[in-house]
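User: Sequence in, structure out. Go.
Assistant: Echoing your sequence, followed by the structure tokens.
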Amino acid sequence: MPEFIAAIDQGTTSSRCLIFNHGGSIIASAQREHLQICPQPGWVEHDPLEIWQATQAVIGEALAAGGLSAADIAAVGVTNQRETTLVWNRHTGRPYHNALVWQDTRTAELCSQLAADGGKDRFRPQTGLPLATYFAGPKLRWLLDQVPGLRADAERGEALFGTIDSWLIWQLTGGPQGGVHITDVTNASRTLLMDLRTLAWDPQILQTLQIPAAMMPQIRPSSDPAGYGRTSADGPFGGAIPVCGCLGDQQAATVGQTCFAPGEAKNTYGTGCFMLMNTGNEIIPSTSGLLTTLCYQFGRAQAVYALEGSIAIGGAVVQWLRDQLGLISRSEEIEALARSVPDNGGLYFVPAFSGLFAPYWRSDARGVMVGLTRFINRGHLARAALEAVAFQTREVLEAMEADSGIHLRALKVDGGMVGNELLMQTQADFLDVPVIRPKVAESTALGAAYAAGLAVGYWKNTEELRQNWGIDRTWQPKMAEEERERSYRQWKKAVTRSFDWVD
């Protein structure tokens, strides 16, 4: 068997290709950013063709960096930004419109109209999700309503819907020349269109949202021994490699962190923050503002479910301070700036740029800073921004413990922000539990590699994957209880100030 597994990690801000060995170590990698297109406030788009071009480029660059060819790659796994929605023509491969990003809020009015008949939880019994701008189904309906000619093409089966995983797998396996139109159970569970029990598109919801079934991808396991298809010989890999692993990015990180037992949880600090807790084969409805979602499905084994707390703005707040305010020139500078002051100076920053996700689900919320005085300086703002990430995570953790009845004794973390040691210590302080960073922090790409490798027998079972996981560093809580609870009360008060801003 070839020596390595390739993972494509297509995220909100960049596309990457990472190549792993049997020990789960990175052999080679490449990364390219893509544009964030914001036509008007609340609208966020990506160019699907730019994403595909970047993906092809990083595959070639990663192979070249490792001195590898297709003959060295046993399988390919894909992980992706979830909920981001696009539609393309099956014959030409041309998108009908830019992709609508998961952060996009243009479907707020549509979601309100749908909620008027049955409430915002009308589809939750089937899907585990509330009606919210976050999910792909309403975004697809908006495209069908707004793009001329799209609905007619969709009815004829000429227009294909997909989240980014579907788009990339279709392109990798041939595109207009026989590309495979599939998605996996984890990505399908984020559309507001899949029944959690049957793992199939819900015909009643499709009808309610006026979505033609002919445009929907086939739903497959996250790790599929049968394979979805093979890379095309004239594609970026240059050979027929099985594409057989696919996971939404947060589920991929959960797999990469080897959270295979019920009650195990991880938090990913990326553009947003996403905490998932494995609930085993049990579907646990949330009463605390969380999402019930698919965790993974390996081959013909029974599906594994999860509770998830989704935070819209995590690392994106640092990007905003860098790009929009010019407070820093590089993201890494945020830690030193925040350390220039001993505390937040009484400033609380709620970055509800796209409304609030878990546990509030308030699309009417917008970002606020409260507690401003003339004492406040750049360092206080930087510190308040990092604290906002940690405070939001505490809110999600409390909801997760309420729904599951499980008290977390430690939190596994991954993602781009875990290199920020001040944030990690702040997180341990606010949660009052240890925060653990693994040796391989690229858990998302690693999870996609694991899914593909399991499918072809590169790794035998999940126990073998557990043996690859190791601790890099642990942060222990140091904050006094009184200070922790006082600051949290102030944060909760600040959050209420963000409500009801959008009429």
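User: And one key feature?
Assistant: The mean pLDDT is 93.
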